[in-house]
Amino acid sequence: MSESQFALRVSKLCRVYKIGEQEVRALDGVDLEVPAGDYVAVMGPSGSGKSTLLNQLGCLDRPSSGEYRLEDEDVTKLSDDALSDIRGCRIGFVFQSYNLIPYLDVVENVRMPRSYSREVDQDPEAPAELIKTVGLGDREDHLPQQLSGGQQQRVGIARALVNDPVFILADEPTGNLDTRTTKEILDLLDRLNSEGKTIILVTHEHDVAARARRVVKMRDGRIESDERVRPPAETWKPSDITSCTGQPFGLFSLLRLRRACRNLGKVALLSMLTHPMRSSLTALGVFIGVASVVWLLAIGEGIAER
Q1: I need a surface site. Which of 9, 45, 115, 131 has the fewest CB within 10 A?
Q2: Which run of H or of E encompasses 284?
Q3: Which residue numbers delimit the ABC transporter domain (predicted)?
Q4: 193: closest CA among 73, 34, 32?
């Protein structure tokens, strides 16, 4: 299989933490190849290295040694800004606790990752289409607290897909759901994968892992077993790597500022209106701090003149 047919590859990946004089090897020479269109379940007991591997694959942490290639790019050598772009454009995150913004409706939550995207020509209808894809077309204007747990997780999956990522990284996506809702979410992930989307799912549940095309079990920072159940699905079109980093800086800055003012500005305003006392106390603290600095500078200048 050629390099371009892999969604990701890690080779001899190590992550060592220093605790006092001791070294803890959270990952110890992990080798993993995930073809595009694969559906991988990662399992293991607590302390096996699942969370550490998750952080590495999500570009949330850097390895102590080894190589991590996302498609055909070595991301271990990229700057923090470049890694931020990759997290925003090329990896879709699905969280156990949903992590939806409570002040925004379904469409605005799904659209939020686009605030950080460098892509200029964004389809304005894509968020609404994704919401229909996950079965929430009649709840676009609902807030998260007006949705069930399963519906909130569907919104989280649509949000993960909005920038057409290389793969979806799902961290215990059914951990907070009942049996019926778990089946609905797994059915949705099955459908997305059958359409060609690459999925890496971390779980403790054997029933959940059984839905994947491949089960990887970890222990003591190493891969203990790697069982292939079914071949990978035929993939969607390869992601456009330049869509994250290929736009002119000035144009990207203006677009990002406009999106930030529209989306993030609204979040900030709604947060202040929802918690007026906290916002007032914060503003008062800032005012007192600035006034104190000005006062001390004035006293210092007065003493210097004398």
Answers
A1: 45
A2: helix 276-305
A3: 8-245
A4: 34
| Residue 248 CB neighbour total at 10 angstroms | 10
Which residue, among 235, 234, 252, has the nearest Cα to 243 in the 3D structure? 252
Cα–Cα distance, 47 to 25 (Å, whole number): 11
How would you classify residue 20: left for phi > 0, otherwise alpha for psi between -120 and 50, otherwise beta? left
200 in the Ramachandran plot: left (φ > 0), alpha (ψ -120 to 50) or beta? beta
* Spatial strand order in the sheet of 222-228: 91-94, 167-171, 198-202, 39-43, 214-219, 222-228
Please tell me the distance from the alpha carbon of residue 198 to that of residue 141, in angstroms, as a whole number.
29
Beta bridge partners of 111: none
Question: Residue 122 pLDDT > 70, yes or no?
Answer: no
Domain boundaries 6-240, corresponding CATH code? 3.40.50.300
Q: What is the phi/psi pair of residue 29, to 5°?
A: 70, 50
pLDDT at residue 251, rounded to an integer: 43
Residue located via tokens 């800004």: 81
pLDDT at 303: 81
Quick one: pLDDT band at residue 244, thresholds 50, 70, 90? low
Beta bridge partners of 201: 41, 170
pTM beyond 0.85: no
The secondary structure of 181-232 as a DSSP string is: HHHHHHHHHHHHHHTT-EEEEE-S-HHHHTTSSEEEEEETTEEEEEEE-SPP
Residue 194 CB contacts under 8 Å (≥ 6 apart), including other chains: 233
Q: Which tops the pLDDT comparison, 138 or 116?
A: 138
- Report the distance separating Cα 116 and Cα 226, nearest Å: 35
Q: Which two tokens stand for residue 81?
A: 């800004």
> What is the identity of the amino acid at 207?
D
Q: Which of 58, 50, 138 is nearest to 94 (CA)?
A: 58
267 close to 104: Cβ distance less than 8 angstroms: yes
